[in-house]
Design a protein that fits this description.
single chain; MetI-like fold; 2 domains; about 80% helix; about 0% strand
C-alpha cells in the first residue's frame, strides 16, 4: 500500500509541476503585452516610465527564468500577488470569497448523497419495475442536463413562476440563517444534481452485482430476513462506489461552481475567476489555476488512498 500511495504522490507532484509552469507561461504566451492589455481593461492609461514601474511591481521585469522563480517563491509563501483591477492582494480576495464556495460545495455534496444513495438503492431493490425505470431515467437526466440550463430553469420555476425563493444574491451565514438557506437552496441543489445522478447509477449497479454474490445467497439460506440480508450483507459493500463518484464528480463540481456562482450572483471563487478572465487579471487567473489543480490532485490522491484501505484487491495489485 505504501508503494502505491508513493507512486500516486509522485504522479500528482509531476502533474502539479506541469500546471505551475503552464500557469506562469500562459501570461507570456498571450500575443502582445499581457500587462499592458490587463491595464487597458481597467481604463487607465500609462506612459512608458509608469509601465516599467508597474512591471517591476508585478515582477514582470528581467529574464523569464528570474520572473518564474520570483513568482514561485512568493507563491509558496502565500504571496499570490495583487489584482491588477483592484490592487487588492489575491490571497485576501481568496479568503474573502472562500466561505461562499465552501458552503456551495458542502450543500452540493449534501444533495448528492441525500438523493443519490436512496435513489440508487430503491432502484436496485425494485429492478425492472416502473419505479426503477422512472428513477433510472431521473438519474440519467441529472447526469445529462447542463448546469447552466438547469439553473435558469429553476430560477424561472421557483423565483418567477412560483416566487418562493430569491432568484439571485447571497446572504452570509452569520447575518441571517433563514435568508442564507433560501439563497443557497437552488445553487446547492443544482450543483449536487449531476453527482446525485452519477451516484445513483453507481450504487444501483453495485448493489445489483452484490445481490447476486454467493455470500448473499448464503445469508438467505441461513434464514435471515430480506431486510437483514440487504442492510448487513449487500448495501455496505455497495457503498464503495461512493469513493469513485466523489473522485469523478469533484472536478465537475469545481467547473459547475463557476457557472452556478455566475447564474445566482454568488460572490465566490468561481465568479471571481470568470471576472478575472474577462478583465485579463492574470495574478488571479494564475492563483486559481494552481489552487484548483492542487485541489483536484489532492482529492484524487485521497480517493486512491481510500480505495487501498477499503478494497484489499487494490493493495494486492500494488
Amino acid at each position: 500500500m505504501g508503494s502505491l500511495l508513493l507512486a500516486r504522490a509522485a504522479q500528482a507532484a509531476l502533474v502539479l509541476c506541469i500546471v505551475v509552469v503552464l500557469a506562469f507561461a500562459g501570461v507570456h504566451l498571450i500575443p502582445g503585452d499581457a500587462l499592458l492589455a490587463a491595464i487597458g481593461e481597467t481604463g487607465h492609461e500609462v506612459d512608458a516610465r509608469s509601465l516599467e514601474a508597474v512591471r517591476q511591481a508585478y515582477g514582470m521585469d528581467g529574464p523569464v527564468t528570474t520572473q518564474f522563480w520570483r513568482w514561485l517563491s512568493h507563491f509558496v509563501q502565500g504571496d499570490w500577488g495583487r489584482s491588477i483591477g483592484t490592487g487588492q492582494r489575491v490571497t485576501e480576495m481568496f479568503l474573502q470569497r472562500l466561505p461562499v464556495t465552501l458552503e456551495l460545495f458542502v450543500g452540493g455534496t449534501f444533495w448528492a448523497f441525500a438523493i443519490g444513495i436512496p435513489v440508487g438503492t430503491i432502484s436496485a431493490l425494485r429492478q425492472g419495475s416502473r419505479l426503477d425505470r422512472v428513477l433510472s431515467a431521473a438519474a440519467m437526466i441529472g447526469v445529462s442536463v447542463p448546469t447552466f440550463w438547469a439553473g435558469i430553469l429553476m430560477i424561472y420555476v421557483f423565483a418567477v413562476w412560483l416566487p418562493w425563493l430569491p432568484p439571485s444574491g447571497y446572504t452570509p451565514f452569520g447575518t441571517d440563517l433563514a435568508l442564507n438557506l433560501q439563497s443557497m437552496l437552488m445553487p446547492t441543489f443544482i450543483l449536487g444534481v449531476h453527482s446525485a445522478g452519477l451516484l445513483a447509477r453507481y450504487v444501483r449497479s453495485s448493489l445489483l452485482d452484490n445481490l447476486r454474490q454467493d455470500y448473499v445467497r448464503t445469508a438467505r439460506s441461513k434464514g435471515l430476513s430480506e431486510r437483514e440480508v440487504i442492510t448487513r450483507h449487500a448495501i455496505k459493500p455497495s457503498l464503495l462506489p461512493i469513493v469513485t463518484v466523489v473522485g469523478l464528480s469533484w472536478g465537475h463540481m469545481l467547473a459547475g461552481a463557476f457557472f452556478v456562482e455566475v447564474i445566482f450572483a454568488l460572490p465566490g471563487l468561481g465568479r471571481m475567476g470568470l471576472e478575472a478572465v474577462f478583465a485579463k487579471d492574470f495574478p488571479i487567473i494564475q492563483a486559481l489555476l494552481v489552487v484548483v489543480s492542487l485541489n483536484v490532485l489532492a482529492m484524487n490522491f485521497l480517493v486512491d488512498a481510500a480505495y487501498a484501505l477499503l478494497d484489499p484487491r487494490v493493495r494486492l495489485a500494488a
